[in-house]
Structure formats: C-alpha cells, structure tokens
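Page 47, continued from p. 46.
Same chain as before, 135 aa.
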Amino acid sequence: MSLNGKTTTNSGATWQSSPTGAAVLITDLGAVRDVASLSVSQMFSDARTQEVQVYAHARQLGGAPAWDDLGWSDISGGWHSVREGTPLQSSNPNIAGAPLRLTLTTSVTARFLRLDARSPSAPYIELRSVKAFGP
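Result:
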C-alpha cells in the first residue's frame, strides 16, 4: 500500500496553467535511474488534476530538456485518470492512500521525467505528490 502523509490537506504543488487547464512538470531525478512505476496523488483542495501522461527523455547530462523537445517519449501509454486520494483515518485526513499507480510495461532508464497534467475545470494544476519507483 502506498501512503502519503502531509502537514495539511492543502499541501502539495499548485501552479497556474493555461486557460484550458493544461500544464507540464519536468523532474530531474538527479542521476540516471531505472523507473518501473509511478504513483500520482491529488491534493485535497479546491482544484483537481484530472488526468496525467508521463514521458521520459534520453538526455543524461546537462540541464533539463525543454518541454517540447523531440526527445520525449510517452512511457505511460496515454492519458490516465487521477482519482482523489482516500483519507485513511477520519481523525487525520492528512494521510492519504489509493493514488494513481502507473506500472510501466517495461522499465525505462532516464534522468528526466515530464508529467503532463490537465484539469479542464480549473485554470491551475494541483498535485499532492508524484513518486517514481524502480524495478
């Protein structure tokens, strides 16, 4: 079971997106890593990230590639719905379970991951956490 504990129900990452509710998050894993699965959790606040798609880039050195660089490859197999996390304790709603778990068909080796998120109902994106796991 994947658990996610935060200080408050509104803790996580929020950023303004385009008017259509689409945004990109690029993550530098710090070194080349094998990634076999990811988990994505929503915040318990007013905006909801409704769908995500994940990409990996082959670049291993230097800074992060631009979001529209041609080297990004879809590793998630398209868009996936992100369900609202489930508070595990009524007395402490800051501990959430049941994130979206994306298991890749084959492990990828990458240093940079790009997460595309969209939420058509709001002009900003909110995520509680994104975690990458090895094989």
